[in-house]
Amino acid sequence: MSSVNVNSIKNLNNNVTIDISTNNQITVDADNFSIAADGDIGVGTDTPGVAIDARNKTDAIALPRGTTAQRPTATAGMMRWNNTTGAAELYNGSEWIEVITDYIPSGSTILG
């Protein structure tokens, strides 16, 4: 198998360009998707500043989802949507915990 060294690749319709810059960043110019040299992914930005950067988008990020029985082998910090409970959940390193959605204003007293 041979390799080809190129700086830019365009598809046949000229609507997607893959540019491999000198700093090893890959930019896919099709709705501003990029993969930086350090592996950060940018959606809506050509200059991602964190692992997954969608700061310029205004809609939402969809979480992985599944039932309680479909939970993955977890590591601390994982987040998913639980279809069984209808709630977002986080893995804290020892168990899955549901993200609390009730808001208690500052200064409130909880009785009971």
Helix/strand layout:
Layout: E1 8-10, E2 17-20, E3 26-29, E4 33-35, E5 41-43, E6 52-53, E7 65-66, E8 79-82, E9 87-91, E10 96-98
Parallel strand pairs: 5-6, 7-8
Antiparallel strand pairs: 1-2, 2-3, 3-4, 4-5, 8-9, 9-10
Tell me about this structure.
The chain is 0% helix and 29% strand. By secondary structure, it is mainly beta. The protein has two domains: 8-53, no CATH class; 62-112, no CATH class.
Strand count, sense and barrel status of the largest sheet are: 6 strands, mixed
> What's the gyration radius in Å?
21 Å
Count every beta strand, where a strand is a DSSP E run of 2 or more residues: 10
Strand-and-helix sequence, N→C? EEEEEEEEEE
The largest beta-sheet arranges its strands as 1-2-3-4-5-6
Q: What's the pLDDT, averaged over the residues?
A: 78
